[in-house]
Amino acid sequence: MSRSLHASGAVARADAHPSTTPLDRWLGTKLQSSIARSGVGVELWDGMSFRPDGPHVGDLLIRDRRALIAVLVNPDLQYGELYSAGRIEVRGDLPRVVDAISRLAIDAPLSWRERLALWTERPNALVRARRNIHHHYDLGNDFYRLWLDRQMVYTCAYYPTPDAALEEAQLAKMDLVCRKLRLRPGDTVVEAGCGWGALALHMARAYGVRVKAFNISTEQIAYARDRAWREGLGDRVEFIQDDYRNVSGRFDVFVSVGMLEHVGRRNYASLAAILRRVIDRPNGRGLLHFIGRDRARPLNARTRRRIFPGAYAPPLSEVISDVLEPARLSVLDVENLRIHYARTLRHWRERYTAAESDVRAMFDDAFCRAWRLYLTASEAAFAIGFLQLFQILFVPASADAIRWTRADLYAEPVGAPDAAR
Amino acid sequence: MSRSLHASGAVARADAHPSTTPLDRWLGTKLQSSIARSGVGVELWDGMSFRPDGPHVGDLLIRDRRALIAVLVNPDLQYGELYSAGRIEVRGDLPRVVDAISRLAIDAPLSWRERLALWTERPNALVRARRNIHHHYDLGNDFYRLWLDRQMVYTCAYYPTPDAALEEAQLAKMDLVCRKLRLRPGDTVVEAGCGWGALALHMARAYGVRVKAFNISTEQIAYARDRAWREGLGDRVEFIQDDYRNVSGRFDVFVSVGMLEHVGRRNYASLAAILRRVIDRPNGRGLLHFIGRDRARPLNARTRRRIFPGAYAPPLSEVISDVLEPARLSVLDVENLRIHYARTLRHWRERYTAAESDVRAMFDDAFCRAWRLYLTASEAAFAIGFLQLFQILFVPASADAIRWTRADLYAEPVGAPDAAR
């Protein structure tokens, strides 16, 4: 695709860098060329702009020469770094621009940096795991309360209909998980990675089960324990501040929603050993809900550095071959909910944007911008199929308590179960 | 477990081998010991018997010394060979005995023979594939008509309720496949491995799509073409006697029910290339329905030799990693229907047993016994989780036409669709 070249913005901004040199303008055309198919243009600090032919989605405003060079050298990391620092700005609708640029990557072969990242991934040892989790989940409950639903569920929701509200969809997600697992009163459940405890409390309250819920985030566990006692469920739900690798005992049910991403594939063998042990019963069953891919690829470099250190979204095949097969577990059902995660992230982003003045009172501007971009880019990634959201239901290989069909999952609206059933 | 030793049957049969020697009896205890946990006993040709402690499920009657040695040396092959030859007989309920012995294998590590079979599997080249398929599927339509449903569907059915009849369940299976694929009037569909054509005809008749259906079995294709013209669908369904590797063109939908087992994993890369090409459209979607495993393991040695040469039931992870991921296809839904295949096989076995006098008019006694055992053992394999039946629904990575939830699959009873919808 050819590019047109406009010298728009007749007067350079007084506070801007010096005017662009021929080299800057050549680099500008290179940058524009790398994103030409997206319909997004490039504008340099002195107003020099480069636009693609065809529909125009928006522009990236590059504020200085070093930003221009950095984003060309390592786009995977630097788009996010420089946007957060205010050295790249977006003119136009941020979600549309991010979506358009994200689509370029979906069929791209892995870069050498991505290959290197896959090879050099380090195991999340216990100490490192604690530090990584603390980094993200202990930003403060007050921060997450600004834009999550009332129950503080920080994982993909399930929208029975596309226009469902976030609160309803998070309840429906918890209920869908309970139904898939066929929870019955008296069942014992272990949950690995319980967040602020909403699912554990829902299972106990609505399905009459007993839950041991593990999490290594200090703030989340404190919040969950407090809520359990306030809601009179303290005798049925035990929140344990410990690593999933320290789960002991046997249970009827294993469930993990949004934790596998933090396990890292170097630890899949130990997860397999735990899974095999904890539900080794004829009526045992388990569910993994996690962000996945449709091929092996590291998460975006900036997400790994700033947002989720140590995180990895595995291909579905890898979870089955490296976690479930070695554990002699049999897959009953896999559902891909990626479009539900795109919707969830849209709702989070809308709430986050509405509450940004409150965020700014807690954190600096770079933090605000970083989270705005993270939520926006995550929505795009799920919407376009760059990331997937899988729920896998499994049982021990010789289990005999298997649902006849999945029709019971849909026999009545999700979200309002009786404890009695 | 200890064994008790009875010298039952006071008088040796007149036509039997000479009496057992001490060595025979020692081998008899070895054989009984290898199946002791099943509750099945062993009786030798002179009436010498070996029974397990605890509940007694039935007995294997070993008719001669060479049979005793052969089954000890290579049980995976010889149980079937010797049963078919009448040199091993079963006293007691055949399905119960087969089920009990099959359960012993489920947690067993792979034997050296199984490892070898995995390593030495040969690719099913075109010529070899034709021979293998001819071996099984060209036994004669009259034979299969004796015990299949009216529509001659020779794959796992789907029972909306456990007490559904076979005819109803095969129709429901075809309808479930159509619903998963969201067939709409005017869609173009390619079917790889179409059997006697029932699904292709159902799709065209009930959903108004146009189908190209491939199969290399001569008898099946002739039957299917005849049926298409008789039912007035000859202009909408084209039956092509050719290998799936020769599929050309692009389609809205790819579907394959019960063919992947015959592809063999050495051909997964070429299947991936075909899949990537044929549904490379924004609204493309595909479904693979196949017999799988929950870990890599060859099929039973006798099944590979006598029943399905060249066949291989892959672990779910292998199909995703070696077929779908290289084709840049994204998994939307996986359903494990193994208990439905156990039920299907029970229905087939019951019909087969009822029609055995007709089978005997077509084939010899060894054939009758071999098929009786094959149907019985297959039922056991699915019932106990030794084999799985997977349906995988997938779309190109960047597809945008994805169902919102699976609720529509269950919104009305399967099996009686309008062509109009």
Q: Could you explain the architecture of this structure?
A:
The structure is a homodimer of 421-residue chains. With 421 residues, chain A is of the alpha/beta class. Chain A folds into two domains: 102 residues, Nonspecific Lipid-transfer Protein, Chain A; 295 residues, Rossmann fold (3-Layer(aba) Sandwich). Chain A has 17 helices and twelve strands. Chain A has a seven-stranded mixed beta sheet, with helices on both faces. A five-stranded mixed beta sheet of chain A has the order 1-3-2-4-5. In chain A, a hairpin with a 4-residue loop joins β2 and β3. In chain A, α15 packs antiparallel against α17. The first copy, chain A, is elongated and about 75 Å long. The N terminus of chain A is likely disordered. Chains A and B meet through α14 and β11 of A and α14 and β11 of B.
Lay out the secondary structure.
2 copies of one chain form a homodimer.
Chain A: E1 3-7, H1 22-34, E2 40-43, E3 48-52, E4 58-62, H2 65-73, H3 75-84, E5 88-92, H4 94-105, H5 112-120, H6 126-137, H7 141-145, H8 166-180, E6 188-192, H9 198-207, E7 210-215, H10 218-230, E8 237-241, E9 253-257, H11 260-263, H12 268-278, E10 285-292, H13 301-307, H14 316-324, E11 329-336, H15 338-354, H16 356-362, H17 365-383, E12 388-396
Helix pairs in contact in A: 1-2, 2-3, 3-13, 3-17, 4-17, 12-14, 15-17
